[in-house]
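Help needed: design a sequence for this.
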């Protein structure tokens, strides 16, 4: 049978997008006495506290020196968004949003009023682009 071009192109684009999300993106994080390679997909969220950054991941929690803004720039192509000034959340790990809280893996974080609209828009874009 002949295949309608538009339907075919939509399915092909969806497949390409799914493959692009499977590509792993790693961060080199300086830790005491060396470096640690961290898979961005395994991060629940990143918290800024003074001049240290705390990583909450599937493999455990750890901290490193640095600035959240620097990491935000490194992760610009990845599905990360700020829910308030101190947290950078992995949208792929979001399990739910209720009132002014977001459930990220086993953690619950506050969504600040100024960042609420932008965070929810980024989450909607991520979920919509995933085709769920």
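Sure. Designed sequence:
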């Amino acid at each position: 049978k002949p295949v309608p071009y538009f339907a075919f192109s939509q399915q092909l684009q969806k497949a390409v997008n799914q493959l692009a999300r499977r590509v792993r993106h790693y961060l080199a994080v300086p830790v005491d006495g060396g470096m640690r390679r961290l898979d961005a997909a395994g991060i629940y969220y990143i918290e800024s506290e003074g001049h240290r950054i705390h990583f909450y991941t599937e493999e455990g929690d750890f901290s490193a020196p640095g600035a959240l803004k620097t990491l935000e720039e490194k992760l610009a192509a990845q599905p990360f968004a700020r829910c308030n000034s101190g947290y950078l959340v992995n949208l792929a790990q979001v399990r739910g949003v209720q009132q002014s809280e977001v459930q990220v893996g086993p953690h619950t974080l506050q969504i600040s009023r100024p960042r609420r609209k932008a965070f929810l828009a980024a989450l909607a874009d991520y979920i919509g682009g995933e085709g769920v």
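Strands lie at 26-31, 34-39, 43-49, 52-57, 60-65, 80-84, 87-90, 94-98, 101-104, 107-110.
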